[in-house]
Every structure is written in C-alpha cells, then in structure tokens.
Amino acid sequence: MKQMKCFYSRRFFECCCLLTVFAIEFVFGSSDLGPDPEVTLNAGTVVGAWRKSPSGSRYRQFLRLPYAKPPIGELRFKDNLKPVLVFVHGGGYRSGVSASFYYNPLHLMDTGDIVVVSFNYRLNLFGFFTLGDDAAPGNLAVRDSLALLQWVQKEIRFFGGDPKRVTVAGHSAGGAIASYLMYAPEAAGLFHALILLSGNILCPWAMQSTNTAEASQRVLESVGCHGGKSSDDIVECLQSVKVVVLQKAEEALERKGPLLPFYWTPSVDSGTSTPMFPQRITKDTPLVNKVPLMMGVTRDDGVVTAFSHLATKNYLNKLNSTWDEECADYLLFGDFADSQDAKRRCDAIRAEYFGPDDGQISFDQGFDFISLLRDQLFGICSADIASNALKFAPVYAYSFEHVPVDNSFLKLFLGSRVKATDQIAPEFDGSVHGSDVTTLFRLFILDFTRKPVDSALMSRVRSNFISRVVNFVKTG
Ligand SMILES: *[C@@H]1O[C@H](CO)[C@@H](O)[C@H](O)[C@H]1NC(C)=O
C-alpha cells in the first residue's frame, strides 16, 4: 500500500481519508518490542509500529491508513463518497427487525459500490398508539424513520456515504413508511430516490386511522389508564405500565375477522401541532418530493394473507356464501359509499377472479384467491402510486416472479400454522411476498448455520436484481 505523505507537507489539510488503528497485545514485562508488525488487508499490506503503554502493555499502532482515495488532485473538493441505501424493513407495522441475522446485506456488499443502512423503528402500539393530540401524537414509527434520515444527513459521510445520494427502500409496511416521504414537506432533502417493494401508503391496509384510534382506546381500558383524565395524565399512566402488560393488552384485542385489517398503522394526526398526516393520503394527494421511483410486486404477493385462509380447506367453500360480507368488511377495508356500492364492487371482484359463469368459489380456486389478494393488497395501490409519480419523475416497475432457492419468507408465513396434507400450502412454492427482499438480503433467521447457497439460476437472478437495484441507487 502506497504511503501517503501527509504530515509535514502542504497537503496536510487535504488528508481527511485516514484512520488510525490501535491493537492491544497484553504482553507485560518484555523489553524487546520486536520487528515492526504487519497486517495484510485486501488492498495490500500495511506496516505499523510496536508501542508500549505507560503501564507496560505492548500494542501495535497503525497510523494514517487511507480508507478512501486521497482527496487530492482532481478529487480536491469532490465528495469521494458512495451512494447510500437506507432499508426500512416490513412486518405489518408489528414485527420485523433490521438485524443482520434477519436482513443480511452481504450480496449488496459484493458490489462494493454502496453504503447500506438499516434501522429499527417502533412497532405495534409503541409505534402507533395515538390520542390524536400532542400528548400522544401517534405515527412514532414514521417519526423514527425521519429521525434516522436526519442522522444519515449528519453522520453518513463518516462511513463513506454521500448524504446527497440517499435512496430509501422499504418492503411492505416499510414501503408504506418510505412512500410517505414523497408526500412529506418535512422529508425534503433527506432522500433522493425511493424503492418500494410490495407496499406503499396508498395500499388499503396502510393507513387505518379509525382502527388505530379505537385500538388505542381499548388498550387504555384494558390497562386501566382510561376515563376522564387529561391526555397528559393518560400518557403518564401508560408510561408506568410494564411493557409486558401493554403487550398483553395488545394481544387481547379481539381479531375482527380472517382478512384482518391492521390495528396499528399510521393515522391522521391533524389534532397535533406538527402533523405528519394532516389527512389520509390518497391517490389524489399531491406529491411534494418528486424523486425517481423503483417499485414492484411479486407474482404471489397475496400469499401473505392467503395462507391463513387456505390453511383450512373449507375456507373458500364457505366464502362462497359469506362473500358479500367478507368482501365488504375485509377486502374493501370499509372503503365504500353505501351497501349498494359495496355490493356492486364485490360482485365485480367475484366475477373477475372467480369466473362470471356459475360464480362458485371453491377450494380449487386457491390461486385465484392469491391473485385477488395480490392485486387488492399490493397491485392496485402500486399502479396508483406509479401513475401519480410518473407525472414528475422516472418510474421503474418490476414484477418479481422468481422463486428464491430457500424461499425464506414462505417458511416464515407457514410457520407452524400449516401442517395438514390436504392444504394448498405444502406443495406451494411460489414467488411470495418478500421473495424480492430475500433476493436482495439473506435471511438467516430460519437457520443460523446455513451457508448461503444458490442454484446457478438463483445466482443469475440475484446478481441481475441486485445490479438493477444498485444501479438505481447510484444513478437514480
Ligand atoms: C355459491 O354461491 C352462489 C352465488 O351466491 C350460489 O348461487 C350457490 O348456490 C352457492 N353454492 C353453494 C354450494 O353454496
């Protein structure tokens, strides 16, 4: 490794890209410090020096190692920094974690071209509980994400990242949080491109203000923090409740039905002094931050909720007679003018996905049901946000159809729920919700010892998808 002459030269003030390593070795009492220590890095061998601490510990000292090209000559005043990818994990606003055993970016690191940042945000009632006022404004998960992006602006250059080239990628509920940035004046300048993997804020599950407000009240009642007090008192009461008690209260919320809308989501917070969602974001809400967009769905995205229904063989048979109510309550997410409107739309959906002739819904239409859920939960809202964004910026859309080798997300969905042989699940091996994410990241959650192994085809798909993502992060 070529030594840079930095000290004692006019270039001293330009030499920022250096680091210093002190490596301690506990060898006491030795007076002979020995030959200079060497360490071989990928970029070459560096030579340091032995030193002795005041109390006699021997340590190796490596000074002024370049960690980037010297910012001299044509690089003077240039940011020799890499574009940044910030990943917002999914999990329905209630689960997931950014940890590397879950989302390991090792294949993204192979490209050597970008800096990857992932982070945790508050989930569940901790991320979304709301009283609709400044005492408990809700949307804390979204506020966490903004705080992270502000941190990136201040600090990422110290990790070699370029704060002026930040792409935010979100999957599922993470995509909903990421897409919110397009509508948020407070996010201006914090990001420069977006990747939305199967989910955005226009999806029917993404914002459930009424559910969230209701669930918040029910939690208050169940932990005894309700009734006649000011919001500040209520929050003070909540802060004294043990975490496990709050979790139990959350779990005890009665599930409404099989096609469950979420309880904890972003909510309209117009009653607060710094609202993030002055009103519900719809496809007519104007975009504020007009950035390039890469986005897509997976072929079998609908499996994410279909599995819990298809796990019992007679669900679809039963749906044949309960369709009108189930559809209105759980497919339209209450989003209809009146019962006539709901009936008209549900009839149309039934004809489209289950055939116009006899209108029968039965078990062997499992794949039609999966397609219906894909379109309803992810597809239509993706088309909506794309057509809105297209007016202002490039939009690159994909449909991810490959089935990853280990199909980790499928296994996560299956969990212990689906066991019996007469169900669709065991023989099903589709490109499920998350198959695009597991191509970008490795999920070691299901098997900590598993070595990354790809088939030849999977390797090709992986490097193809990753190079598209990385190119987008680099050039927008
Ligand atoms: C299924 O629903 C259709 C339409 O409501 C009805 O005509 C038919 O009789 C139902 N079939 C069964 C087996 O219940």
UniProtKB/TrEMBL annotation:
<keyword id="KW-0378">Hydrolase</keyword>
<comment type="similarity">
    <text>Belongs to the type-B carboxylesterase/lipase family.</text>
</comment>
<feature type="domain" description="Carboxylesterase type B">
    <location>
        <begin position="80"/>
        <end position="476"/>
    </location>
</feature>
<keyword id="KW-0732">Signal</keyword>
<dbReference type="InterPro" id="IPR029058">
    <property type="entry name" value="AB_hydrolase_fold"/>
</dbReference>
<dbReference type="InterPro" id="IPR050309">
    <property type="entry name" value="Type-B_Carboxylest/Lipase"/>
</dbReference>
<protein>
    <recommendedName>
        <fullName>Carboxylic ester hydrolase</fullName>
        <ecNumber>3.1.1.-</ecNumber>
    </recommendedName>
</protein>
<feature type="domain" description="Carboxylesterase type B">
    <location>
        <begin position="36"/>
        <end position="79"/>
    </location>
</feature>
<keyword id="KW-0719">Serine esterase</keyword>
<keyword id="KW-0325">Glycoprotein</keyword>
<dbReference type="InterPro" id="IPR019826">
    <property type="entry name" value="Carboxylesterase_B_AS"/>
</dbReference>
<dbReference type="Pfam" id="PF00135">
    <property type="entry name" value="COesterase"/>
</dbReference>
<feature type="signal peptide">
    <location>
        <begin position="1"/>
        <end position="29"/>
    </location>
</feature>
<dbReference type="GO" id="GO:0052689">
    <property type="term" value="F:carboxylic ester hydrolase activity"/>
</dbReference>
<dbReference type="InterPro" id="IPR002018">
    <property type="entry name" value="CarbesteraseB"/>
</dbReference>
